[in-house]
Amino acid sequence: MTRTRHAVAIYARISQDRSAQELGVTRQLQDCYAEAKRRGWTVADEYVDDDLSAYSGKRRPQYQRLLEDVSLGRRDAVIVWRLDRLHRQPRELEHFVEVCTRAEVGDVVSLAGEFDLGKSEGLFTARIMGAVAAAESQGKSERIRRKSQEIAEAGRPHMGGPRPFGFEADKVTHNAQEAEVIRQLAARALAGETLTSLATWLQETGVKTVGGKEWRTTTVRGLLTNGRIWGMRAHRGQILGPGVWEPIITAEQGERLRRKLLDPARRTNHSARRYLLSGLLICGKCGNRLHSTPRGKYRRYGCRKGADSAGCGGIFIYADKLEQCVAEAVLHRLDSPVMHQALTEDGIDQERARELAQQIDKDKTRLDDLATMWADGELSREEWTTARDRVKPRLEANRREFDRINHRDSIAEYIGHSAELRTQWATLNLSRQVAITKALLTSIKILPATSSGRHGVDLDRVELEWRR
C-alpha cells in the first residue's frame, strides 16, 4: 500500500535547452505531477535546473536547494522523471543517499519505478542505474569530442554557442561592419596602441561584443589573438590549419599580433601615460634616459640622480613646449621625400621579422629553463646570473629590432597626408600619438640649457635621431 506523503519534492532537469523554451522540463513536470496525483501525494515544491548537465560537475542551484530542504526535514519524498535526471555521477548518488538516510527520506520515485533508498535492494538498483547513466554520459562525451575533432580538422566552424565577432550566424560569412572594426584594431595594435586604449575606443564609439557587453582589455586581446580572424581553425587551444572561411586580416598580421600580445614580457600594469616622449629622451651630459620629473603643476623630463638612478641630475626640460615642437617635427617628417622612400620602397623585411621572432622565442625559453634549473638546484646563483646575462641582452636587442621593423604600420596611412593628421592630432589619444612618434624617432638627445625658463624651447638643445 502506498504511503501518503504531504511534502513531496519534484525535480526536473535537462542538459541542453537549445530553444530556451524549457519544453523538456515542462514535460517532465507534467508527468511527475500526474504520478503524484495517482499516488495521492501532495507536492510542496518543484526544483528545476534547465540547460544544466549533471555529468559535467557544474553546480546545479535547484538541486542544491533540494538537498538542503531534504536535509532540514522539509520534504518527505522525491519524484523525478528518470533517476538520471537527479544524477549522472556515482559520487553524487552516494551523497544524495547519505542526505536522504540522515533525513529518513526513503521514497524516491521515478516514472520507471520506486526506489526505497533505506533498503539494500532499492539502493543496489539505484547504484546500477547510476553507473549505467554515467557510462552513457561518458560515451556521449567521447563521441562529441571525436566529432568536434573531425569538424575542426576539416576546417569547418564549431556550430555551438554564439557567433564570433566579425562573422554572421553561419560563422563563415563576414559581418562587414565588425570585420572593419577588427581590421582597425589589428592595425592600431600593431602600431603600438595599448589594449586599454583600444578597449576605450570601442566603448566610446558604441561598439559592443556579440553578447551586447562593453569591451575589456582581456576580450580585445582574445579577439586579436584568435586565429579565426586570419582564417585559421583552432581546436582546444591549438591551431590545426586553414578554415573554410575567408580571413579578415592577413596571416602575417595575425602571427605578429600573437607574438606581440601574448609575449610574457609584455607589461600588463600600465599606469595612465601623461608623457608623449617617455623612453625617447637621452641626457646630453651623461647619456642616460630622461624620466618624467614633475615640478609642482608643471610636467618635466629630467635626468634622475640618486641611489636608485644612474643619471647625473644635470639635465631638465619642461614637457609641454618640447612635445609641441617634436610633434610638429614628426608631422613635417611624414611629408619628406626621404621618409616616403624609406617606407614605400624598402617595405617591411618579413623574413627578418620571422627570424627575429624565432630567436626571441628561443631566448625566452632559455631564460625559463635557466630559472627552472636554478630553482631545482642544478645551477648556483652565480652560474644562473652568468648565463642570464649572456641571453638577456641578446633578447632585448632582438625585441628592439623586431619592434623597429614593425613600427611602420602606425604611419603608413599618413605618408604624404600630414596635413590631415595635423588636424586630427589633438583628438588622437596619447597611446596613438606615442606610436606614431616612436615610428619615426629612435631617440632625442637633450643638451644642457643655455638659459633658464619654461616659456619656450631652445631648439639648439634638441637633437632628433630619425629612423632610417
Radius of gyration: 33 Å
Give the averaged pLDDT, no decimals: 78
Helix and strand succession?
EHEHEHHEEHHHHEEHEEEEEEHHHHHHEE
Strand content: 5-15%
Order of strands side by side in the largest beta sheet? 2-1-3-4-5
Describe the global form. elongated
How does the helix and strand content classify structurally?
A: alpha/beta
Through-space gap between termini: 96 Å
Largest sheet: 5 strands, mixed
Unreliable segments of 5+ consecutive residues: 17-21
Helix fraction bin: 40-55%
Question: In total, how many beta strands?
Answer: 15
- How many separate domains? 3
Number of helical segments with 4 or more residues: 15
Write a concise synopsis of the structure shown.
This protein has helices at residues 23-39, 61-71, 83-86, 90-102, 120-153, 176-190, 195-204, 217-224, 251-261, 319-334, 337-344, 350-375, 381-406, 418-424, 430-440; strands at 8-14, 43-50, 77-80, 107-110, 113-116, 232-235, 238-242, 281-283, 291-292, 300-302, 305-306, 309-310, 316-318, 441-446, 462-466. With 468 residues, the protein is α/β, with parallel strands linked by helices. A hairpin with a 2-residue loop joins strand 4 (107-110) and strand 5 (113-116).
